[in-house]
Amino acid sequence: MGSRGGVLELAVLGLLRETPLHGYELRKQLNALLGMFRAFSYGSLYPCLRELLSAGLIMEEEPSADANPPLTGRRSKIVYKLTADGKERLQELLTQSGPASWEDESFGVRFAFFRHTEAEVRMRILEGRRSRLEERLDNVRTALARTRERLDSYTLELQRHGLESVEREVRWLNELIATERRADVAGDPRHPARGANDRPATTTNTGRNADRDTVRREPYEKDE
Hints:
Largest sheet: 3 strands, antiparallel
Number of helices: 8
Oligomer: single chain
Strand order of the largest sheet: 1-3-2
Number of strands: 3
Strand content: under 5%
């Protein structure tokens, strides 16, 4: 899939990871997720679903007759669910942290699934996004300094509004990056990337999580 198709693929697989959904509910959740960041065309959903079905990443499932009795004679809604291959593909997508993940087109969707993303990958994406925005700020400020005298007051105000919006996002990213650096995500339930129902990973073959438990019980001991 191309860049836009890749964003939609990630969004669909990420939502289906949470729970199986029928087409209408999937459309609503995609609109809530993608609509915050860019226009979402419903016409692009079903071609994407067909590609994912063809690749074996999702499957169709008819609701049982007991769950949906045929009172109206209408065809039961098809429910889409993730396959094992789909879970592997989602995990592959969530490990990607290159420049494409920093861009306006995909950053918001990537951020929406940060709770399923490794801490190192989150940090690379956040730092990459900040670097990209700082570069954008420098370019806009340079261009504005050259053309300020030729612009009318309304255009200048629009430029100022754009600059302030980017500056706010850079400050927000600075706060997130600082939090990522301070907190052990697996041990700090207050971390923004940690869901309310998420649990820290456990293992029996390393001592890594024992250290995390110590950090979780006394997170600020060294600061005092």
